[in-house]
Design a protein that fits this description.
366 residues, alpha+beta, 4-stranded mixed beta sheet, binds arginine
Amino acid sequence: MSIASRYLLNEAEPFISACYAELGKPEEEAVKRIAEVRKQVDLEGFYTQTYEEISHGAKMAWRNSNRCIGRLFWQSLEVFDARRMKQEDEMAEAIFNHIKYATNNGRVRPAITIFAPQLGYQRIRIWNHQLVRYAGYRTANGIIGDPASVKFTVKCMELGWKGRQTPFDILPLVIQINDRAPMLYELPDGLVLEVPLAHPELKNFEELQLKWYAVPFISDMKLEIGGIDYTAAPFNGWYMGTEIGSRNLADTDRYNKLPDVAKLMNLDMTTNTSLWKDRALVELNASVIHSFKRHGVSIVDHHTAAEQFMRFEKQEQAAGRELTGRWSWLIPPMSPTTTAVWHRGFKDKEIKPIYSYQSSAYDAGG
Ligand code: ARG
């Protein structure tokens, strides 16, 4: 047996055992399945997972996501099996359906769409970092839009895409199967839900003309289950407010909006001691939560999310599993010391199944 086959079996067997035990199946069933997997790996060098295996495997991978504070809900993940798809067009269609299902008019539902796994030279990639994201354009007068998207936006334009050069242009979907030319798809009108930002007290806040999209869909990570690599498996949860209010709109290398918010609040920006950044940050975050709620779009504040995470810890303890986590990611980027997560330590150990980063599909250097 080849080294690759041996590796595969080494990963497959413990996964099948754990997965089947968690699903409450009798041990004979796991034993039988492992024998079957062995046979297929021996003959073909790979094995095809059942729907139950990818479905529960994807949930386990969420549960093992050390950077994620929202893991209490890991069992609620909806898993769409798109492994049969061989054409870019039907993949795009499946992705649009995923976006529609997950958005659900604002009542966001966690979901994942799993495309065919990597197999030799067969490899599917979605080039986008997220299915929905805003373009970024480098111009003579600075960057328009999201600076985090500049590289990908250039790629899209090389492929013939033309943005409108507004600060919030939704990027097209880029799908690549094997070494074929990447295919570009504009997201259909009306598919993407967005939330314009207002503030409960600051009446002129709307003049900043800020908005954000309703649902984060990560589309560039690899899902690894039982030794099989799913290189295209976009997934979504719902937003925690600080992701938008403290990072996407506030980071100086993102939308950098704290100075604009501070001006609107007439804060003294000539000195750090006025705490103008901190005060602007709180109100920007308040506007995000307020606006999502007013538009009926699911969002969780960081205090509630931290409480949910501590419940997740109890739940894992009760199930006899050790909790793993990465502290630097779990603490929220606003008032972290006011949450229990701050005052804790976590073991940052990788457990499989797992979602992990993979090299960029379009940028050799990154
Ligand atoms: N932090 C990323 C963003 O702001 C999204 C990451 C996933 N977030 C989530 N709530 N599932 O777009």
